[in-house]
């Protein structure tokens, strides 16, 4: 919604001559067809400070190109009478290398042939400002790291900018530009060039004089006699306590107005700066008011993980991983990307997780039944007869299957029986190969040609070769698990769930040993996942669904 903030003089249409200075603030954060630019509208927050400093201010947020052009037309008319001009434009910019445009809220995917109707020309604004040289500042707020191409000609960002003589252009993070306006441009005798030079987040282009002051301090011809500064300390303390409870910029400013040299004046100044420097402070305070317990936070993390938003652990602590997951969920669900939850959002996340849990559990149940049927059927056709070829065939297909332990035990007995019946030379050769347990040792044994343990040697040789060839994929699976940043509590939660499923992960201690890896493989097979033995995001989601239900 657009808001227009005009000085008292400008609000009286019969007295346009009083409009000595003019400011225009255009900020776009929410785009109908493009990704949202968080903080894009922050520059419009400087409207009050500019108005108090004597500027006729117009500020527009998330407007169409047509509405922004109307504001620019009025700004151009006022610029004829103005001694100082300040324009701040923030949002998504696009350039062909030479020309640059600010995209409007309803802009479609930019192309060379629609850019003129969906955006505002930066060069046109510069031409208007060139008529007030030396006291014209154009601030352009955008994400300097975004340089993606829209087509063969247009890309994100700003072009070379042909800046007229006497116009100062400052570019960078919109929040930093807002602070520059509020803390320097409207501050009496504050040096703009020096302020920009001390801030790495913003850069100055174009007109760069040694001294650039936009707000001159008023000098009184007749000095006023000084009077003792008398303070009612009791009244000041009461007001300060109320101010701290309110904890808003307006409250701190009201305190400073009553007690400009009060006991807590510096605290008030520092508090204002702290509030300004925290972009999502209101959202944080709203979440704090929910008084979420640690268990409630774990529940939110678990629900987000079920919805495939990686919180990097389920420990009830909202760190950077959880904040990013919340922000990503908010983006996908049409909420401001603050990284802090509201009561409504907690309810929606829980409801979505319930729905997704039901879907995943139904899919998992069908897959479990199908896998069990395949396992039993294959066993009946292979290993159930107790012969070595069938047992090996079963274990190759179902290494962690229902009858895996039984098949392995029977093969051990068969091998021992062959050891008892084999010739001494054959037995010694096999013992040597088995003890070394290398590709070369088994190949050497197989060269004997007629050994009693030929089939076992072939099986072990194939397993070793598979193990070598699968090393890269195992490294990839291990890296994927590491990326989840599973803390000990989450690992214990996983082991506990595997134990509940009868998969025997060993001691539930948060340490993934061989038994745990085998249990994870069994679980992954039962869910139709790749049986790597390492926890993937998909496996974690499935396990959390089981825990939640």
Account of the 3D structure:
This protein is of the alpha/beta class. It has four domains: about 10-205, Rossmann fold (3-Layer(aba) Sandwich); about 235-280, no CATH class; about 295-370 and about 470-549, no CATH class; about 375-470, no CATH class. Helix content is about 50%, strand content about 10%. It is built from 23 helices and ten strands. The strands form two sheets. It has a six-stranded mixed β-sheet with strand order 2-1-3-7-9-10, sandwiched between helices. A four-stranded antiparallel β-sheet has the order 6-5-4-8. Strand 1 (about 20-25), helix 2 (about 45-50) and strand 2 (about 55-60) form a beta-alpha-beta unit. The model is unreliable at about 1-20 (pLDDT under 50).
Layout of helices and strands, plus pairs?
Elements: H1 8-11, E1 21-27, H2 47-52, E2 55-61, H3 65-79, E3 84-90, E4 93-95, E5 100-103, H4 115-118, E6 119-121, H5 122-129, E7 136-141, E8 155-156, E9 167-172, H6 174-185, H7 192-197, E10 202-206, H8 233-246, H9 249-258, H10 265-277, H11 281-288, H12 294-306, H13 320-332, H14 343-381, H15 388-397, H16 404-421, H17 424-436, H18 439-446, H19 454-469, H20 471-483, H21 488-500, H22 514-526, H23 537-548
Parallel strand pairs: 1-2, 1-3, 3-7, 7-9
Antiparallel strand pairs: 4-5, 4-8, 5-6, 9-10
